[in-house]
Prior knowledge:
The complex is a heterodimer.
Chain A: E1 2-11, E2 14-24, E3 28-33, H1 39-46, E4 54-59, E5 62-63, H2 68-74, E6 75-78, H3 91-101, H4 108-119, H5 135-147, E7 153-157, H6 165-177, E8 181-185, E9 197-202, E10 205-210, H7 212-225
Parallel strand pairs in A: 3-8, 3-9, 6-7, 7-8
Antiparallel strand pairs in A: 1-2, 1-4, 4-5, 9-10
Chain B: H1 11-14, H2 17-33, H3 37-53, H4 58-65, H5 69-82, H6 85-108, H7 111-122, H8 131-161, H9 168-192
Helix pairs in contact in B: 2-6, 3-6, 5-6, 7-8, 8-9
Keywords (chain B): Membrane, Transmembrane, Transmembrane helix
Membrane topology (chain B): Multi-pass membrane protein
Organism (chain B): Sneathiella chinensis
Amino acid sequence: MIELENVSVRFEGRRVLQDLNLALTEKRIGVIGLNGSGKSTFARLLNGLQLPTEGAVTVGGMDTAKSGKDVRRQVGFVFQNPENQIVYPIVREDLAFGLKNLGLAKADIPVQVERALERFRLQHLIDRRTHELSGGEKQMIALIGVAVMNPRLIVMDEPTTLLDLRNKRRLMQAVSDMEQSVVMITHDLDLLSAFDRVLCFHEGRLFDDGAPEAVIARYQQVCEEC
Amino acid sequence: MLSTYQETGSVLHGIRAGWKLLFLVVLGSALFWFERLDLIVVSLACVMMLYRLARFSLATLWDQVRPALLLLVIIFLAQIFLTSPEYAVLIVARFAALILAAALVTLTTPTSEMVAAIEACLKPVRRWVPIEKVSLALSLAIRFIPVIVSITHEVREAQRVRGLDRSLFAVAMPVIIRTLKMGDQIAEALDARSFENSGDGK
């Protein structure tokens, strides 16, 4: 479980998130909001990439400010642009990277990599050069690169922004098949219909929180009034 | 090193990366040690024959030299004026042999094996050199050079569309800024994938 207690974040004196008090226990949580509303900062708080200026974020009882390394083993992060997340020139090597960092035995790494690709039906990409993959393939490899490390929660920051409809569906299918909990930031409201809970941010505050249908309807109303 | 590996199943592909790198070091040293035209031309011919052994076509061989052709011509002309035509041939043949040999190593060796070989070479100095970081830096360089090339193309195209045809400064600035921003995001991605937790790579 992730808990945020009186969390605020300031950048250069400006408050980008204010007074957040939340407990995240659901399996699928969506995060929506206008640009600059604080969604990405919220996501980065969850695995300690961003530390709160005030308050505390705890993941399974661990404070992100004190146990950042351990928190990042529990919470994976998929960035918006997969280009900057894939760090090795060959798919096999990139997927092995995270496992190596976890300290897995050398002999187990190739087996885990192959299994992960099989699970997402992408084993044909194993020896491909990462810079030659399509945008959709890159996003899938970025996701698998995180999933292979088997975190308990995966945070995804607008993972469908660069994808076409087919790849968006493929990614969402992969997400719904995953055992892990997922927190997904997105502007694609349709993707959240099957989620358990949706959080809506507005001007750095939690504006709404509840079942997808109700939260999305109120958000759309606010957008029309803006 | 830029992921130019091409699988043909030849004998050269089966040789371990460490031996190929050693061959490159020895050949490179020999090419610069001996100042004899006949030896250097024979070396060049041998390297070209290795391409045949690796089952690469003449077109592949040509592709390796072509990017350096202008530089070779400039060196050749400069040497004719500064020294002699014979020495100009020697210098150009020396560089061509070295370029072709280096390209042959990258064509026949996957980057992962190359990096692993470099890691192995560094093992004796692991107390002073952070091998895993060196290895990651090499992999990042190999991975991101094509990305930076593509950023440069994007910037040039965006500027052409807006009527700016050639300006080194106008291209360099946005490329540098985007590359630095990309560097920040890569650092975060490494953090997010527990790179700091890296142990001894057992």
